[in-house]
Amino acid sequence: MTPNQVTASGLVLVALSSAAYVYHHSSLAFGLCLAFAFTFDALDGAVARRTNMSTKAGGYFDAVVDRYQELAVFAAIGWVADLWAIAMFAFAGGILTSYAKARTALEIPVENHGWPDFFERMERLVFICVLLAADGVATAMGAASPWILAGGFALYAVLANATALQRISRAFAMLKRADGNQP
């Protein structure tokens, strides 16, 4: 498989998992399926490096697919748990985290390794999978509570937006330095 095929496969698996969740409402199954599907997010880059097929177009494709994956997952959670406001806030955090660096790169050269943030994409993926699994396990044990998913998803949204603000602050400082307005 090419790196782009790996990326596309991950998107298809996330979309199918999200659609299945809308149908069966099993948070545990959704969390486990997403954990498998999200492994493709890490594999595409490894395949690209291993096969010497890294391209700017492939990196761009991967970044766009990442946003569509988040959208599919959050739309499914919003639909099943009626958490639309939280889903929108969570999606905004992921989009703005990505946008802050991308927009800065239009103004000044930026390096990928210079953006270590608190709640990066991999942490967000693990968090959402663990949250869904915990909600599913609680439900299976008869301890179902709408607050597990709602509270955890709200915490996710807050952390994602805090990370976006962290990046926005860093970007603004970098741009000010580039303008010569700040040491």
Order of helices and strands: HHHHHHH
Q: Roughly what fraction of the amino acids lie in strands?
A: under 5%
Summed over residues and divided by their number, the pLDDT gives a mean of 93
Taking the sheet with the most strands, its summary is: none
Q: Please tally the helical runs, counting DSSP H or I stretches of 4 or more residues.
A: 7
Tertiary shape? globular
| First-last Cα distance | 48 Å
E-strand count: 0
Task: Tell me the structural class.
Answer: mainly alpha
Low-confidence stretches: none
- Evaluate the radius of gyration: 18 Å
Helix content, binned percent: over 70%
Describe the fold and architecture.
The protein has helices at residues 3-24, 27-37, 39-50, 56-81, 84-107, 121-140, 146-179. It is mainly alpha-helical and 183 residues long.
List keywords for this structure.
single chain; 183 residues; mainly alpha; 0% strand
Helices and strands in order:
Blueprint lengths: L2 H22 L2 H11 L1 H12 L5 H26 L2 H24 L13 H20 L5 H34 L4
